[in-house]
Amino acid sequence: MGELEDAVMTRVWKWNRPVTVREVLEDLQQERSIAYTTVMTVLDNLHQKGWVRREAEGRAYRYEAVSTRAAYAAALMNDAWAQSDNPAAALVAFFGMMSEEQRHALRDAVRMVQGPETVEPTTAGSPGSTGSAGENPGSATEADGR
Asked: Record's family (predicted)?
């Protein structure tokens, strides 16, 4: 998605309710000069792409997000990765750009996707807690070896 589409979607997510072109326009005009027809076209494009649904209200539409901002971010990352001629190198470069906090979030996400067999050893001692596995990925392996 382009910068303007992202700016429009940001408003739709922020308000978390069906919005009109006029509402989005007025908010965007606080930052930049933009025409009603431009915002209307962007929302129509987002509707065609499946990012927003719309319902007629009189002669206008109200638009609402179809999915979360997290799903949108995931789709953007997937699209960028799919365009690479060397996906492994792209991932290495991407991981290299991450902060320590982002790398911890990535480790947690991988554990969640891998399923309960990866998570159980770290939570067996204290229900509901993730233990120190987020800080020390080797701890789950050591617990499995006993």
From this structure: Belongs to the BlaI transcriptional regulatory family.
What are the sequence ranges of the domains in the chain?
A: 3-65, 69-113
Q: Work out the average pLDDT over 8-14.
A: 94
Q: Report residue 116's pLDDT band, with 50, 70 and 90 as the boundaries.
A: confident
CA separation for the pair 29, 22 (Å, rounded): 10
For 58, phi then psi, to 5°, come to 70, -130
Please give the CATH number for the structural domain made up of 3-65.
1.10.10.10
Q: What is the pLDDT of residue 43?
A: 97
What's the predicted TM-score (pTM) here? 0.60
**H runs (alpha helix) in the chain:** 3-15, 21-28, 36-49, 69-82, 87-97, 100-114, 116-123, 138-144
Q: Using an 8 Å Cβ cutoff, are 112 and 142 in contact? A: no
